[in-house]
Structure formats: C-alpha cells, structure tokens
Design goal:
466 residues; alpha/beta; FAD/NAD(P)-binding domain; 5-stranded parallel β-sheet
C-alpha cells in the first residue's frame, strides 16, 4: 500500500452505482481518476447485496411459484416441482460475481485506478486508505468525491444478530426456507424479499407502523397492490408500532405496542437505510452534515469545503441506484468543466413484486395537498389484449395531467412489466409532454404499452377500449 500513486485529478470514495459510474464518466472526459472501495467486489450495496441479487431471487421464486400454481391454465402440467435452494442461491451469486467482474473490466477499459481499502479523511484534500492487512497509503487530489452509499437502518429495541434477526443482506442468503418470516417494514425492500420467501413456501407476516403499505407511493395504487399481495398469502399487520425484536428462548419474537407478540424463526428488518457518512473523518475537513447524517451539497454537488463533492445515498433524495448514477455522471461533468444535469422530478421508482409497481412524478395526494388542478386517466390491464395473452390481467395504469395545460404530472402503474413501461412515462415527462402527446403516439398492438396510451386518452374521457 505504500506504492506511490500517480497524480490524480479526481479521487472517488465508494465503488457503488454513484462512485463507479462517476469514475467511468470522469475518465471518459480525460480526468485521471481513482476509485477507493472497501469491499473486494465493486458495485456497492446495489450489486453485491441489494438490487441485483434480490431481482435474481424474485425471478427464480416467481418461476417456482408459476410452475406449481400458474401453468395449468396454459395447458402445461408439471407433475412435481422441487426446490433446490442451494442451486437457486448459487445462480444469484453467479450473476453478482459476473457483473462485479464486468465493472472491473470497465475500469481497466477506461483506465480508472482501483484501490481497495477503507478511506478516511485526515484533513481537506487528504485521504488515508487502509487495506485489510493494515497497510495504508495517503492520497490527495484537487477533487475528492464522497459516494460511500448507505446501509440498512434499524429501530430502538431491535437486536440484530445476523441470523434470526437480520437485514436484507441476510435475507438474500437464508440457508433454508423459513417456516415463518416476519418482515418489519412494508416498503419496497420488505415487500420484495417477503414475496421471495412466500413464493418459496414461508408464511410471511408484514408488520408496518403506518396504516398503509409503500409509504410515499400513490395511495390508490398501493391499496390495490396490498389486496393482490394478500391474495398471494402475505399477511399484513398495519398500524403496529414495533417495540422490540430479539431472540427469546431460541426463537425470534417481535413485540408491538398493545399487541400480542409475534413468534417467528426469521425476522427481516426492512425499515429503510441510512447514509454511510460515519468513520470517514469528515469532521477533519469541515464538511457539514444535516440532522439525518447526509452531506449538504449545492446544485453542482459541491460540499461546504472547496474541491469536495458528494453524490448518491449520502446526500438528500431517494436512495435509488439510478438516481445515484445520474448524479455520478452529472458531477463528473461539472468537475470536468462541462454541463451536467439531473431532473429530480422524473426519477422513477419501481417495486419488483408480482405484479410490479412503478411510479414517476407526483402522486394524487401530493397534487391535492398542493392545490394543483388535475385530471386523472385510468386504464385497467384487464382491458388489454396482450395482458390476457400473458395471463396478467391484474392492475392498472394511472396518469395525472394538469387540468389546464394537460402536462403530465405523474404516472403510476401496477401490473406486469410496470418497471419497463414506466420508462416511456419518464421520457414523456422529461420533455414536458402532455397527455394528448402521449395519446397521439402510435403504440404497437398487441402490447402492454397500449395501456399507457389508453390511460392518456382516459384523462380526457376518451379511452377507446373501456
């Protein structure tokens, strides 16, 4: 680690979606760039223990469930389907391994220097990187970017042991299917991983403090989704305030205020995430944090200290990989003297359950609260020919357009492949399209995309197929 490093233009702390994308873009722009990552594999939480492995499990578990319960209607009868959990988990790990090696290849292709170890500021412009062997090197650069991501949050009274009571990291690799899994938190992570283990045979109970699932999502869509998940076997206990979750007599026990205790063999704590800003030595630089531990930045991602920047989960905004990537590109472009841009009004969110849920822009509740006049267009999957061919008729698309200008303000989709369909809405909103614009565009038939076209027509009361 004491090997001299060549002069750098940009030093990036963190090799997740924010950091590695910023590094690649900076290198493309001619900046001598190095990226420090503590873990052996690049990709951050998203690739190693988040987005990618969870989607691999969701896909495998959905196929398993369909093989057992959903193929007969297609005339496909499989007498016996057995679960090989070890092989299922290996597939997930193989996918992660392949993609992390891919990022290594991108670094080499773009001549980004990769440095493994834990980075800590020792003052403005100075970072000490210490590897697993305890060896260290001091690095400096005129531009230093903090992109260290986030970690799972917890609650008072919860005793994480990493086995019975754990976070999403542990829930990606249970060695056997739980008989009873309690999920604390009804957000994206809890519902996705709860769905995985429910499909594989676990009884799943979701405990949520609020009176609804998916906080922040359009309420009409969230309520319909809850009904569909309940049909799939997920049990919801809403309005439950968790006081403790711990091992008692060898079992996991969740205690909620004024309720009977819930006993389970696994407890998944999925109550959000917190920024990784501790143990970075930020206090030696003068970089300011807000009350939630996030780094304050301006519109160009500059911190309160000249030459120091921050992006991704360590700053305000949704903790989403694609939001972090956009900031990585924009920040690198700013540093290189170019023009960068992130449109925060069109950052989509997707919950990869079955059916999927996708959203971009304002919810109906937000428009009402702000007093913005709007028109709503809704079109159901059951009125779409491709949905019937797929056997996926649950769900709807909902478009909210300004009542006076017709500009699209929000799009919310519950249904098959919603995560792919939302991209059209993002593009439309990015170019300030009206519902009329979207309705006038030809959509191939038969496709699920026609659902969006019909929802756009419905904002003016002229849907053709409902």
């Amino acid at each position: 680690m004491n090997t001299p490093h060549p002069p750098l233009d940009l030093l990036i702390l963190g090799g997740g979606p924010a950091g590695y994308v910023a590094a690649i873009r900076a290198a493309q722009l001619g900046l001598r760039t190095a990226c420090v990552e503590r873990e052996p594999a690049l990709g951050g939480t998203c690739l190693r223990v988040g987005c990618i492995p969870s989607k691999a499990l969701l896909e495998s578990s959905e196929l398993f469930s369909a093989s057992r319960h959903g193929l007969e209607r297609h005339g496909l009868v499989i007498p016996s389907v057995q679960l090989d959990l070890a092989r299922l988990l290996k597939r997930k790990d193989d996918i992660v391994g392949g993609l992390t090696k891919g990022i290594d290849g991108l670094f080499k292709k773009n001549q980004v220097t990769r440095i493994q170890g834990h980075a800590r500021f020792t003052g403005p412009g100075s970072v000490t990187v210490t590897n697993a062997a305890g060896e260290s090197v001091v690095l400096s650069a005129p531009h230093i970017l903090v992109a260290t991501g986030s970690r799972p949050s917890s609650l008072p009274g919860i005793e994480l042991d990493g086995t019975v009571v754990g976070t999403s990291t542990e829930a990606l690799s249970y060695s056997e299917v739980p008989k009873h899994l309690v999920v604390i938190g009804a957000g994206y992570i809890g519902l996705e991983l709860g769905s995985v283990w429910a499909r594989l045979g676990a009884k799943v109970t979701v405990v949520e403090y609020l009176d609804r699932i998916l906080p922040g999502m359009d309420r009409e869509i969230a309520d319909e989704a809850q009904k569909l998940f309940a049909r799939q076997g997920l049990e919801f206990r809403l309005g439950h305030k968790v006081q403790s979750a711990r091992i008692e007599d060898g079992q996991g026990v969740v205690r909620c205020e004024g309720r009977d205790p819930i006993v389970a063999d696994r407890i998944l704590v999925a109550v959000g995430r917190v920024p990784n800003t501790a143990d970075l030595g930020l206090e030696t630089t003068g970089i300011q944090l807000d009350p939630r531990g996030r780094i304050d930045v301006d519109a160009h991602f500059k911190t309160s200290v000249p030459g120091h920047y921050a992006i991704g989960d360590v700053i305000k905004g949704p903790m989403l990989a694609h939001k972090a990537e956009e900031e990585g590109v924009a920040c690198a472009e700013f540093i290189a003297g170019k023009h960068g841009h992130v449109d925060y009004d069109t950052i989509p969110g997707v919950c990869y359950t079955h059916p999927e849920i996708a959203s971009v822009g304002k919810t109906e509740e937000q428009l009402k609260e702000a007093g913005i006049p709007y028109r709503k267009g809704v079109f159901h999957y059951r009125a779409n020919g491709r949905a019937h061919a797929l056997g996926e008729t649950d769900g709807r698309a909902k478009i909210l357009a300004h009542a006076e200008t017709d500009r699209i303000l929000g799009v919310h989709i519950l249904g098959a492949r919603a995560g792919d369909l939302i991209a059209e809405a993002v593009v439309a909103m990015s170019f300030h399209a009206s519902a009329e614009d979207l309705a006038r565009c030809s959509h191939a038939h038969p496709t699920l995309a026609e659902i969006l076209k019909e929802a756009a027509l419905a904002t003016d009361g002229r849907a053709l197929h409902s």
